[in-house]
Amino acid sequence: MSKSLLFIPGPVTVAEPVLTATAQPMIDHRGPEFKALLERVARRMKPIFGTERAEVLLLGSSGTGGLEAAVANMFGAGDRILACPIGVFGERLIAIARTFGCDVDVLETAWGSGVDPQALRAKLESAAGERRYAGILLTHNETSTGSQNDLASLAAAIRGCGAYVVVDSVSGLAASDFRMDEWGFDIVVTASQKALAVPPGLAMVAVAPRAWERMDSNRAPRYYFDLKKARDFAALGQTPWTPPVSIVYGLDAALDEFERTGPRRVWERHARYARAIRACAEALGLEIFSAEGAHSVTVVAIRVPAGIDADAIRKRLRDDRGVVIGGGQGKLKGQIIRIGTMGDLSQTDVLGALGALEIALLDAGVSLHIGSGVQAALRVFLETEAPAAV
Ligand code: PLP
């Protein structure tokens, strides 16, 4: 099998110790070893969510299952929900809420930007009495546009409105600081195959105390994704249904590495890689899709010049150089390329992928000074020192 460099924004390259951990012999998922494993992993996920109060549950599903669980347990038919999409995954949250009968109102934001806190505040203030929102749906990091919301500002805008806040941090959590308790979020969802760099198969859902109260009174139907059932089983060191045991082993090993490196250095690595990729694109005369102040640290979306097919560039990169990057989704199909920063990637991997990108762009007819992009990325790496572990 030839080596390929995975630069899509999930699933990502998984480090050797994590892969090895997933290959351990199977154990009884209702036995003492799994109980210790589950409890250890849930405890170690809490600081990553920035919570002491919330319970962290592991669901055998991808991130979308975690999002469905959040919506289905918190809301039901007729509940008025404010959705704040900034791309394809925000739209998926709307689709989930509508599937469960919610009355979804949408705060529109131009793709590539983050939600404007003042616009959010104004929207909440305009909804009074019967028209008050029961819930707010936010995306932390929008993988389809390479943009990231300033959650601290949005949390400040929401504070006091009473609505329950569900946050999709599938492609954000563990790559930057996250403060669930401080920001007052009720449910936060992430998944194994993104910044935690574990194979796909697990959604991790952090549920704040206030959310449990809401679930007690919510009569909307749920079965597989019944979070109260998941909590009851978690208290016994189990999951209601057969869990992906191997992936939980992998997560445990990934958390070893996360803790050894220290959160600050992990966050800084993602930010540095994203900066280097953006610097490369800009040096090549390409436009970054995300707006200034809203750049994601886990994925960089780059517009390809008019007349150039982004998907053809991706194919050349994959076929000729073994470099796998993402393309545009939804209305951005063919217009952008997306380069992820997550996973077990070295600076050398990043520089190699960017060099391959330059060649593919040149072959596609983009006029550029060959080497100028890699040089700009290299400069970012040389100029930014890794901070000490915390
Ligand atoms: N939300 C965001 C922001 C994502 O990036 C993704 C996947 O890329 C999802 C939700 C859906 O996650 P999954 O593909 O694990 O179901």
TrEMBL record:
What superkingdom heads the lineage?
Answer: Bacteria
Q: Which SUPFAM superfamilies match?
A: PLP-dependent transferases
- What role does this protein play? Soluble hydrogenase catalyzes both production and consumption of hydrogen from suitable artificial electron donors or acceptors. This subunit catalyzes the tritium-exchange activity.
Quaternary data: Heterodimer of a large and a small subunit.
Binding locations of substrate: R338
What is the protein name for this chain? Answer: Tritium exchange subunit
Residues of the Aminotransferase class V domain = 26-329
Kindly list the positions at which N6-(pyridoxal phosphate)lysine occurs in this protein: K194
Alphabetically list the UniProt keywords. Answer: Aminotransferase, Pyridoxal phosphate, Transferase
Tell me a Gene Ontology molecular-function term this record carries.
alanine-glyoxylate transaminase activity
* Cofactor(s) listed: pyridoxal 5'-phosphate
Organism expressing this protein natively: Vulcanimicrobium alpinum
UniProt key word Transferase: yes
Q: Name one GO biological process term.
A: glycine biosynthetic process, by transamination of glyoxylate
